[in-house]
Amino acid sequence: MNAPLGSLDRPNSYIGRSVPRPNAKRLLAGRGRYVTDLVLPRMLHAAFLRSPYAHARIASIDTEAARAMPGVRLVATGADLAGLCTPWTGTLDHFKGMKSAPQLPLPLEEVLWSGQAVVAVVADSRAQAEDAAEAILVEFEELPPVTDIDAARTPGADRAASGIEDNLCFRTRLDTGGLDAIFAGAAHVVEEEFHFGRHTAVTLEPRAILADWDAGEGKLTVHHATQTPYQFQDLYSRHFGIAEASVRVIAPDIGGSFGMKLHVYHEDMAVIGLALMCRRPVKYVADRMESFVSDIHARDHRVRARMAVDAEGTILAMDVDDVTAIGAFSTYPRTSAVEGNQVVRLMGAPYRFRNYRAELSVVFQNKVQTSQYRAVGHPVACAVTERMVDLAAARAGLDPVAMREKNLIPDEAYPCDSPTGYKFEALSHQACLAKLKALIEYDALRAEQAALRARGIHRGIGIASFVEISNPSPAFYGIGGARISAQDGATLSITPSGEVRCLISVTEQGQGTETIIGQIVADQLGVAREKVRVVTGDTETTPHGGATWACRGAGIGGETALQAARRLRDNVLALAAAILQASPGQLDLRDGRIVDAMGGAERISLAEVARIAYFRSDTLPPDTNAQLSITHHYAPQGYPFAFTNGVQGCHVELDTDTGLVKILRHWVVEDCGRIINPLLVDEQVRGGVVQGLGAAFFEECRYDAGGQLTNGSLADYLVPMACEMPDIVVGHVETPTADTVLGAKGCGEAGTAAASAAALNAVNDAMAPLGGRIAQIPMTPARLLKSLGKI
Amino acid sequence: MSSALPVTLTVNGETLTRLVEPRETLADFLRRDLGLTGTHAGCEMGVCGACLVMLDGAPVHACLTFAVQADGAEIATVEGLTENGVLADLQHAFHQRNALQCGFCTPGMLVSAQGLLARTALPSRAEIRDALSGNYCRCTGYEAIVDAIETVARRRAAGETAAPFMEEPA
Questions:
Q1: B-chain residues within 8 Å CB-CB of A721?
Q2: How confident is the model at residue A103, as a pLDDT?
Q3: What 3-state DSSP class applies to A58?
Q4: Interface pTM (ipTM) of the complex?
Q5: What average pLDDT does this structure show over A617-633?
Q6: Which of A251, A640, A656, A682 could disulfide-link to A475, CB 3.0 to 4.6 Å?
Q7: Sheet architecture: strand order including A117-123
Q8: A240 with A213: CB under 8 angstroms?
Q9: CB contact, 8 Å: B66 with chain A?
Q10: Which tens digits make up the pLDDT trace of A376-425?
Q11: Residue A135: its chain B contacts at CB < 8 A?
């Protein structure tokens, strides 16, 4: 483990300290500034007519009546927008053989899912735009919808889109060799077929965009509720032919994102085109019904898995077949294949076994597109692995914890790699499991479980170890040809009053990015945290960077801020030394004052140094290089990814008459490397767990055989409520990465990665004495009663 | 669509008269006509609770109330409840406990919490969780919110008063 960056008892020691978020106060006062809230002069509103069919040909569009409606300024079809925006294709070069049909803002001839936007209306008010959209007449000729993943892959099957030759978007195989012989010779082989319900992010603020084209200046300004303003600056520039420097994307307060708001949406591209055509600001906010049929969905997987175990319970091999259905297009620019790719590569990651075979099939169908959502692929890989471990433990006669103790990669065995090619620097599965076991009071809980079973109360305990992939290098998107940065940049300045401004490319969606960046800058510079103003989310003012996704905010953004602060500190001390006729090495910056490094006596305040530099440079010695602003970029080097790890425990009580499950308690012990702000880390973990428990018990986008979403409203689609969620105990093991000075890895996805797996194991544990067994999430009461043979 | 109707109501202590379309919701009226964007629209069907405001002292869904229905009513939004200090202790506790992330559900949560504590002085954690079941939060996992409300309930029961919220240093 790295040495601590500093002790917490000196001034400005903020790394490792729980401090509240300065930017949360205005949110609490109702003074957030979400895109939803923004109003610009002469702003117009867009609404969309959407396809009622999962798959159909557009025979004709009649917009005449709509154009005559009150307040209507523009009605635009696919053909109108196709002339403004070049098509996009959601493939990455390093996914060999991947294909997807080209996409446009609105379709020309064919609609590919129920809910796809077909015609845009721009009017003075949103209500007028919606009124007019209802007056548009579109003749659709229905085509056969592709919804079943097996039928979709049969030769000669109907195609989900006419622009593709078959319904296989991408296929990959991993094989370490000799699997058949290992399975044939194993003492125990366990098998299961898993079904994972398609679900979606349900950010409380829906998607929102406000585009403003200034024809005079040739400048496009887009206020966009997104995590990744730089990615969209690049895309709007290239697809609409506007110089990159003339495109400004501003991401103000964002009402939740969780990965959902970093994909290209057809409506968003349409709104850019509408703003170009109207030459007035155009705003579009998805309403909740539209969100369900246009926000990306995720995690629609069927996994068949086998695990081979020797007589003592040592895992020998895993063999998996994952089929995932992604909609009719692969999303752009991150694709819809990353999730499946991570599923098959993360499978088994905490364990020692070296023999592995996987097949991944990514399949087109006529539903909403799927793509990256919080903990991409992890919950699927983790649930399959951890359930197989429990099944194998039962077969080998081992307790689930003992099974994991036996098979986890020992903490001292790192660095090592996985059979799927991931390189692990330093993980702490054993330490985390030991800590979890103590937190849970595992043996006592098992004893209580046994006693309660005797009284007809069915409780279950589920354990799930996990790894989380974070801080991706260019190996993730850059080498695939996507212009998604793996580096981040910060511009750090001492203001004339001796305060600090930090303009940084990582972004804030409420997780506390600005807070931790402020902590790091203040800590490393030697100033009070209140003196640091952190600015994010504006391509015009902040350097280009990857922004916030894949838990890279703390690890990459934090290291960027740390290195920038150290460089600026050197500049300040050099300047102070010139003023004081001292040597920089004899000076230090503490609490906003330049002091003698030895002894700490104040020599001059930072404010005075800044005053001299900005207003009295004439008094400085000749050739003094007063650089009180610096820009610094940092890209991860060393390991291609940082991995974090941990283990979760779930304690449930199953009502065997109703199939209802009460989640009694949930525990997480996780290792995110250096913890910058324990308060924020714990709340990231808790929030992540609840999204995972939502997937485990409630959340599912349910489709009928015709490709119609049947529960696309917030009354029908269940998200976890406060009364259904348990208190969540969070513990930590801290193994900083040695790849950076800061040592942080990331914590945003750890909770979601394994919560559903722990819940799945807990429910199966509760059902085991009754002969029930389930391998499908969400575990609805009806499914549980079926598993119990009651219905 | 029919012609606009006059409504007279009191919003955050100020009585005003406006013409509104009959179909305009109170949420849209507050946000669009009055610029009170602290009231949020998350589902527009009375499920998520982001739009909760006080109507004659009780939490109501502004998305399920037409503006014309609020004629003669007294409305308090998060902006007004911040300015008059009613929410100060809750806001302080939410801030200290990090009981919000993106902040979109937060105004509704605060209104709901205020309504709960007006009904029940010292609710149990289960009662708090139950009372928040009409408020969806996708970020926090709820526990910090429950903690913050529990803390405020105890402080109010002990007679503690809070300093004005925005004047405290971060």
A1: 132-133, 136
A2: 98
A3: strand
A4: 0.98
A5: 95
A6: A640
A7: A72-76, A117-123, A44-50, A282-285, A208-214, A219-224, A247-250
A8: no
A9: no
A10: 999 999 999 999 999 999 999 999 999 999 999 999 999 999 999 999 99
A11: none
Chain B residues touching residue A206 (CB < 8 angstroms): 42
Given phi > 0 = left and psi -120 to 50 = alpha, else beta, which region is A761?
A: alpha
Q: Is B75 on the interface with A (CB under 8 A)?
A: no
Chain A contact probe: residue of B75, B104, B110 with most A CBs at under 10 A:
B104
Best B101, B146, B168 member to test A by mutation, with max A CBs in 10 Å, is: B101
Whole-angstrom distance, CA of residue A123 vs CA of residue A333? 30
A201 chain-B contacts, CB cut-off 8 A: 138
Asked if the C-beta of B26 comes within 8 angstroms of chain A's C-beta atoms, the answer is no
Q: Quote the pTM value.
A: 0.97
Confidence label for B170 from pLDDT (cuts 50, 70 and 90): low
Q: Which domain range does residue A40 map to?
A: 35-143+202-294
| pLDDT for residue A1 | 39
Q: Please, which residues bridge with residue A534 across strands?
A: A502
Q: Which member of B104, B110, B125 has the closest CB to residue A256?
A: B104
Cβ of residue B124 closer than 8 Å to a chain A Cβ: no
Pairing between β-strand A776-777 and β-strand A188-196 as defined by DSSP bridges: parallel
Of A509, A512, A725, the CB nearest to B142: A725
Q: Which amino acid is at A220?
A: L
Q: How far is B157 from chain A (nearest CA, A)?
A: 23
Are residues A458 and A496 located together in one domain of the fold? no
Q: Above 60 in pLDDT, residue A8?
A: yes
> Residue A467's beta-bridge partner residues?
A645
User: What is the C-alpha to C-alpha distance for residues A360 and A397, in angstroms, rounded to an integer?
Assistant: 32
pLDDT mean over A501-505: 98
DSSP B114-136: HHHHHH-SS--HHHHHHHGGG--
Portion of chain A with pLDDT greater than 70, in percent: 99
Say if the Cβ atoms of A723 and B126 lie within 8 Å: yes
| CATH number of the domain within which A414 lies | 3.30.365.10
Per-residue tokens: A471: 């801080």
Work out the pLDDT band at B163, boundaries 50, 70, 90.
Answer: confident
Q: Where is the domain boundary, A634, A654, A669?
A: A634
Exposed/middle/buried for residue B33 (C-beta within 10 Å: 0-12, 13-18, 19+): middle
Section A122-131 average pLDDT: 98
List CB contacts of B78: < 8 A, sequence separation 6 or more: A29, A30, B38, B39, B53, B87, B107, B110, B111
pLDDT of the residue at A5 = 76
Q: Are A425 and A470 in contact (CB under 8 A)?
A: no
Those residues with Cβ within 8 angstroms of residue B115's Cβ, 6 or more apart along the chain or in another chain: B52, B54, B58, B59, B131
- Mean pLDDT across the stretch B112-127? 97
User: All domains of chain B, ordered by start, with CATH?
Assistant: 5-81 (3.10.20.30), 87-158 (1.10.150.120)
Q: Identify all chain A residues contacting B27, using CB atoms and an 8 Å cutoff.
A: none
Q: What is the mean pLDDT of residues A630-647?
A: 95
**In total, how many domains does chain A have?**
3
Asked if the Cβ–Cβ distance from B170 to A530 is below 8 Å, we say: yes
Residues A678 and A747 in one domain: yes
Q: How would residue B168 be classed by pLDDT, with cut points 50, 70 and 90?
A: low
Confidence at residue A9, expressed as pLDDT on a 0 to 100 scale: 77
Partner-chain contact B104 A204, CB within 8 Å:
yes
| pLDDT exceeds 70 at position A125 | yes
> Could you give the C-alpha distances from B116 to A108, B112, B143, in angstroms and in order?
53, 6, 16
Nearest CA in chain B to A204: B42
Cα–Cα dist A504/A514, whole Å: 9
The three-class DSSP label of residue A723 is helix
Whether A655 and A763 map to the same domain: the answer is yes
Residues of chain B positioned with their CB less than 8 A from the CB of A256: 101-102, 104, 138-139
